[in-house]
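Teaching assistant here, posting this on the class forum so everyone can see the example we discussed in section. The complex has two components, and the goal was to see what a joint structure prediction looks like when all of them are supplied at once.
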Amino acid sequence: MSQADLPVHGHSAEMAEPAFSVPAKKMAMWLFIIADSATFAGCLVAYGFIRNATPDWPRPFHSITNVATMTLILLTSSLTMLIGVRSADLGDKAKAFLWTMITAGLGILFAVLHIREWSGMIGEGATLFHNPWGTPLFGSLFFSITGLHLLHVTGGVIALIAVGLKYQSGRYKADDLEVTGLYWHFVDLVWMFVVPLVYLLNLAH
Amino acid sequence: MMTTAVGNTNVGMRRNLIVYACILVLAGIQFVIAYQDISASQMFVRMMIVAIVEAALALLLFMHLWDNRGLRWFVLVFTVAVILGLQYGWTDSFRLVNGVPWAK
């Protein structure tokens, strides 16, 4: 018997209909996504403002190979997540777990490439407070925005592994995997805006 | 019943693959735009249009907002309102470049 079935003195035992017919966990994730998209939008708009108001803004990126590979990996991880969630909906636990772990693996690969890129930039002298190509604001904004995104990817990988393992052990259901998938797609979606603004607009010609 | 469910899943997966391919192509277009010989503002506008289409595809079809009309409007109204509200300062950033006495 769930808590909703228990008669409560003076109150109806029936629970209110969930908003938009969406389960509470999924709704909570959507509210988080709305709030987080405002956070990223704030960061990207602040970045755009500063970039626009700084005449000697540097264009330090000479190659797009790394960022293109990272984009391909993250986009592919969204597809693998979808396959995992669909398998879970069909009750194929083994396949759902496998694809969830593949998604987490792609997330780890993305993070490794990201850190490798950071190392290269740090090696050239760019840090959070220093930029060898001009205004130090470039370093601050580049590392802050990509760092915030990397933090989300890291959190997503941990969540995917934790939820995947608990789903496999039977403690979590397909819905939980779907909610984690929503978060992962959001991380992917944010990257679609970070790439053009932070990387491609700063490409050296 | 199970056959129908599997059939629907296959159709759904086919749709997901098509959407994935479209998003990949759009991401590729962003990289092509980056190498075009155009001004930064034109580049910004073109890239943002492509990014918004990519995001819309991901939101509606990968995150299943297309299937829930009420939730779709709830998410869109709040997110778009916040993002539009953040745009109020852009004009000031242009003033800092062009409107000050030491502007180039």
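For the discussion questions: DSSP finds four helices and no strands in chain B. Helices of chain B lie at 2-34, 40-62, 69-85, 90-99. Think about how each of these relates to the inputs above.
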